[in-house]
Amino acid sequence: MSRVAYVNGQYQPHGQATVHVEDRGFQFADGVYEVWSVFDGRLADFDGHMTRLHRSLNELRIPIPMTREALARVLNETVRRNRVREGLVYIQVTRGTARRDHPFPPEGTAPSVVVTARSLPLSKGNASAKKGVAVITQPDIRWGRCDIKTVGLLANVLAKQAAKERGAAEAWMVDEMGLVTEGSSTNAWIVDEHGKLRTRDTQANILQGITRAAVIQLIADEGLELEERAFSVDEAKRAREAFYTSASGFVMPATSIDGVKIGDGKPGPIATRLRTLYLDRAIRDAI
What we know:
By secondary structure, the chain is an alpha+beta fold. The chain has helices at about 25-30, 45-60, 70-80, 120-130, 155-165, 210-220, 235-240, 270-285, and strands spanning about 5, 10-15, 30-40, 40-45, 85-95, 110-120, 135-140, 170-175, 180-185, 185-190, 195-200, 225-230, 240-245, 250-255, 260.
């Protein structure tokens, strides 16, 4: 639990931190968010997440609330005040507070900025990765601009809850053609039956995952074969390996999909290797 939250220029006790009832994030989900992993009190993949935050804000025409340097100070100070050594720091930026009306509020309305941080021991994720996790599939009912990291996550919430109720760690969204788009909060990957790494291309309006991009670079460095191409649920169930990537899960092996065992039902060598490589690089380069 975060002890201290940053809200619109002030650090406040978490239990007392509030935004206005007419904040457009609350009224319309009119906002974006970003999440950084924290290693040894430092932020991983800093530039990638910051660049995506700016892109999301620009796509929704929400003013950028402060410089990158100022925001970096806020993020790091929130981490410090919450005494987070291993965990996450979260930022949400909305279009601000204004009388409830669908069009944008008057020019000059200040965005709302909220930052929180919490501890999440790396050992917990490592234990899950060593054993592997279950994934289920769900119809993709989200809006068409999933490339923007918006706070409008109701469809994702419903999918994640369905996974929880079926004893799974994640839900993979499936489009009307039976192709996996991405997870409810992750990017989806397989090592197909021919031994080729595959993940859906970002031209399909899926989220441009920062961990996904880092893993793609690692794959290139390792000389592995990758196709950024969609795969079906049936292809995923026939795959040698399956896994997902995210800022909190890093590289997480999936050992079953809808109850169907993937490969030998254990974390595969490629996913396991990529997790080790990613964590080594992320910890080394965190700022």
